[in-house]
Design a protein that fits this description.
Blueprint: E1 3-5, E2 18-22, E3 29-34, H1 38-53, H2 61-77, H3 79-90, H4 94-117, E4 122-123, E5 134-142, E6 145-149, H5 157-169, E7 173-176, H6 183-194, E8 202-204, H7 210-218, E9 222-228, H8 231-239, E10 246-250, E11 255-259, H9 265-277, E12 287-293, H10 297-310, H11 329-344, E13 348-351, E14 364-367, H12 374-377, E15 384-390, H13 393-400, E16 405-406, E17 408-412, H14 416-425, E18 430-433, E19 449-450, E20 453-454, H15 459-465, E21 467-475
Parallel strand pairs: 1-3, 6-7, 6-9, 7-8, 9-10, 11-12, 11-17, 12-15, 14-15, 17-18
Antiparallel strand pairs: 2-3, 4-5, 5-21, 10-20, 13-14, 16-19
């Protein structure tokens, strides 16, 4: 069954043809979306900007809450359908796509919770002669038109993280999902419309020509740009923003894990295997670089090999599949090249290292790749985990901090002082103790540092980014 969508841009009367959507598992056509051209992008921007400039047209908070509440109910009633669709188009196994849908529903509810609990504040006055007779307070208002550009690896939940906060804060939003995975995005925007959101407040489009995407992002009518994707594209688009446009960028990392010699490996290994091979490693905080004390490093690597070999790789829509395909064949080619380069340079290939098909790659464990190999320097975004022996925790921390990428990190130890030392010294926005690097709940801060991103994700933090805090100072002789 295929899913075919028109542009969700009211009034658009031009387009750039149809974009086919193919399943990463077998490359079969599973849907299509009409692509936007420059004219339809301008229509979307004009519509959104006119909505924002007309303050009488702003949606009251109560109406936005009602829309989000209804949308969550609709998503709950269609949860299995949404999970299968996400698995088909993104390649994440069904069991994990079901978790993604549950998170997405909870994310919509989180937007409501933030609206109900996170407001303005009082600014102290009457503290000196200059502030006498005054009271000051703030409230939050929408920042303007939000343009969201998203990634493929969580085709529903990432969209919820960008579009949900925009709807909640009262910002007109235009979302461009990844061309590989637009179906879940269009489905979610349609659900918002079904839940009562006027169609002009949330528009969705895809493009064939990246220059058209640049036109969308760089327009001076954009108040806030939300980007999830590669650092190469994110930083380039940031440079194209019009003066005054604010942004948040979420890129990737090469997540490090420190494993001390006192770690409980029976607990640590399954967690690291899940964090490294979940969604075939296509997660921005996947376990990638494991720095283990030299006394246990080989044991850590061998146990990871055992865990990797037990994982079932296959059709992501089947209930027993644990690892699915990479998003497209050229990514399998790239991972294969990087692993071969590392092995040729001296890394020991302990398991994996081969493609299974055009779109699937074996879960791979490398032991002690050279520091200058791509697998040691860059985000793999594939099912590959590297284990490095280190003299002590400080060497592990030093090597973990050696890259310009910094996102989430982890340490496995039973010693609280070691845990605190790693937390204090690792270059990361979050450090997990005795858990894998890919842990996340959607209300926590989620931030890439340095080349890994800009600003802070997580629903409450994104909502704050999409608002201005507007102050009123009232002078009265009664104060």
């Amino acid at each position: 069954m295929t899913q075919d969508f028109q542009m969700l841009v009211p009034g658009a009367n031009t387009n750039a043809g149809t974009l086919e959507v193919r399943a990463p598992w077998d490359r079969s056509v599973i849907g299509s979306v009409v692509a936007a051209d420059s004219g339809s992008v301008d229509t979307a921007l004009t519509t959104a900007f006119e909505l924002f400039r007309d303050r009488d047209a702003w949606l009251p908070s109560a109406e936005r809450i009602a829309v989000l509440d209804k949308a969550a109910d609709i998503m709950t009633s269609r949860a299995e359908e949404l999970a299968v669709e996400a698995a088909r188009e993104g390649g994440k196994p069904l069991v994990d796509s079901q978790v993604e849908v549950a998170r997405a529903i909870d994310g919509v509810k989180s937007c409501i919770e933030v609206l109900r609990t996170d407001g303005g504040r009082e600014i102290p006055m009457n503290l000196n002669a200059g502030s006498a007779g005054r009271i000051a307070f703030t409230r939050r208002e929408p920042i303007g038109v939000v343009v969201a550009v998203s990634a493929f690896n969580h085709p529903l939940n990432l969209i919820v993280h960008q579009v949900g906060p925009a709807v909640a804060t009262g910002c007109p939003v235009i979302v461009k999902p990844a061309e590989d995975t637009p179906l879940s995005c269009f489905r979610f925007v349609q659900i918002l419309h079904e839940a009562g959101l006027p169609s002009k407040w949330a528009q969705a489009l895809v493009v064939k020509d990246l220059s058209v995407a640049t036109e969308l992002v760089s327009d001076d009518r954009v108040g806030f740009f939300s980007f999830i994707g590669s650092s190469r594209v994110g930083w380039k688009l940031r440079a194209e923003l019009a003066p005054g446009s604010r942004c948040a960028l979420e890129h990737g990392g090469a997540a490090p894990v420190i494993v001390e010699k006192d770690a409980d490996l029976d607990t640590a290994i399954p967690l690291m295997a899940k964090g490294g091979f979940y969604h075939a490693g296509q997660v921005c905080v996947s376990v990638q670089r494991v720095f283990a004390d030299k006394s246990i490093a080989r044991d850590v690597a061998d146990r990871l090999v055992g865990a990797a070999r037990e994982l079932k790789i296959g059709d992501p829509t089947l209930a027993d599949t644990e690892v699915g395909p990479l998003i497209r064949p050229k990514e399998v080619d790239r991972v294969e090249e990087w692993v071969k380069e590392a092995v040729d340079a001296g890394a020991e290939l302990l398991t994996g290292g081969k493609r299974i098909s055009e779109t699937c790659y074996e879960c791979t464990v490398l032991f002690d790749p050279p520091q200058d190999a791509k697998v040691s320097q860059l985000e793999i975004f594939g099912p590959v985990v590297c284990v490095y022996p280190v003299e002590d925790v400080d060497e592990g921390i030093r090597r973990a901090n050696s890259l310009p990428l910094a996102f989430q990190a982890a340490v496995f130890t039973r010693d609280v002082d070691t845990a605190m030392r790693a937390y204090s010294r690792l270059d990361a926005s979050a450090v997990m103790v005795n858990d894998h690097t890919a842990f996340r709940v959607d209300w926590m801060p989620f931030a890439g540092l340095h080349e890994s991103g800009l600003a802070v994700g997580g629903i409450p933090y994104t909502m704050r980014d999409m608002q201005i805090e507007k102050m009123m100072v009232l002078k009265s002789k009664e104060l």
